[in-house]
Amino acid sequence: MAPMKLYGATVSWNVTRCVVALEEAGAEYQIVPIDFATAEHKSPEHLARNPFGQVPAFQDGDLHLWGTYATHMILYLLVSLCKYDSIVVFTPAIIYIYIYMHHKNGMFFLPESRAICKYVARKNKAAELLREGNLQESAMVDVWLEVESNQYTAALNPILYECLVSPMFGGTTDQKVVEENLEKLKKVLEVYEARLAKHKYLAGDFLSLADLNHVSVTLCLLATPHASVLNAYPHVKAWWDGLMARPSVQKVAALMKPSA
C-alpha cells in the first residue's frame, strides 16, 4: 500500500500538527514539500489537492483531505500581496474561518489539519487517542480539542506572527499586540493549570489527540523570547515536559528547525 502523503512546509505548525499524529499512530507517510517562495501552493498541481492553495493537503489513496486554515505566516503574506482569494474573512481582531465539506469528482474532501489528525488516528488503529470507545472520555477529548483551537492557539497565533514571522520578512514586532495576547495566553494557562492539577492530561488521565495537537504551536512558542511563560504554571510545565519526552514530539521538534 502506498504511503500517505502530507503536502506542506515543516515550518508550518498546521502541517507539523499532522506529523505528530502520523508519528503517534505509527503510520507510513511521506512529507511532500511545498515551496511558497515560488508560489508552488498556487500551481495547478497543488490546487488540485487543495482548491484554496493552502497547506496542509493530505492524500491517502483516493481520499484527499485539506485545510482552509493556513498558518498565520501564509495568511499575512498572501493578504499583504493582495492576492488572497478564499473563504477567509479578515477583521481587525478575528479571523473567521468558514469550513465546509463536500464531494468533488468522486473524492471526499474534509478541511483542516485537525480533521487530518483524527483520520490518521482512526485509520491506523490509534483510536485510543480519541477515546471513541467511551462516550464520556471522547466528549472530553472533543472539549479540549476545541479549547486548543479556539483558546490556546488563538492566543498564540498573534504572538508567533509578531515574534517569528514578521521579523523574518523585514517587519518589526508590535510589542503591544504581543503583550495583549500574552495576557490572554496567561488566562488560558490558568485554566490549564487547574485542569492539570487534577489530571495527568487534558482530557483525563490518558494521552489523547487533545494533548498532541498542542505540540507544534507550543514548539513555536519556545522559539520566541516568551518561552518562559510556561514556567509560571508547574503542572502545565510538567505536562509539556512529558510530551517533549515522546519520540514523536522530538522528531517534530527536529523537523521544525530551519536547518532540518
From TrEMBL:
Pfam families cross-referenced by the UniProt entry: GST_C, GST_N
GO biological process: glutathione metabolic process; response to herbicide
The GST N-terminal domain, residue ranges: 2-128
PROSITE patterns tied to this protein: GST_CTER, GST_NTER
UniProt catalytic activity: RX + glutathione = an S-substituted glutathione + a halide anion + H(+)
InterPro entries: Glutathione-S-Trfase_C-like, Glutathione-S-Trfase_C_sf, Glutathione_S-Trfase, Glutathione_S-Trfase_N, GST_C, GST_Phi_C, Thioredoxin-like_sf
Top-level taxonomic group: Eukaryota
Keywords for this protein: Coiled coil, Membrane, Transferase, Transmembrane, Transmembrane helix
Residue ranges of every copy of the GST C-terminal domain listed in the record: 134-260
EC number(s) reported in the record: 2.5.1.18
A single GO cellular-component term on record: cytoplasm
An MF annotation (GO) of this entry: glutathione transferase activity
Segments crossing the lipid bilayer: 73-99
Family statement drawn from the similarity comment of this UniProt entry: Belongs to the GST superfamily. Phi family.
PANTHER family cross-referenced by the UniProt entry: GLUTATHIONE S-TRANSFERASE GSTF2-RELATED, GLUTATHIONE S-TRANSFERASE RHO
Protein name: glutathione transferase
Species this chain originates from: Sorghum bicolor
Upper lineage: Eukaryota, Viridiplantae, Streptophyta, Embryophyta, Tracheophyta
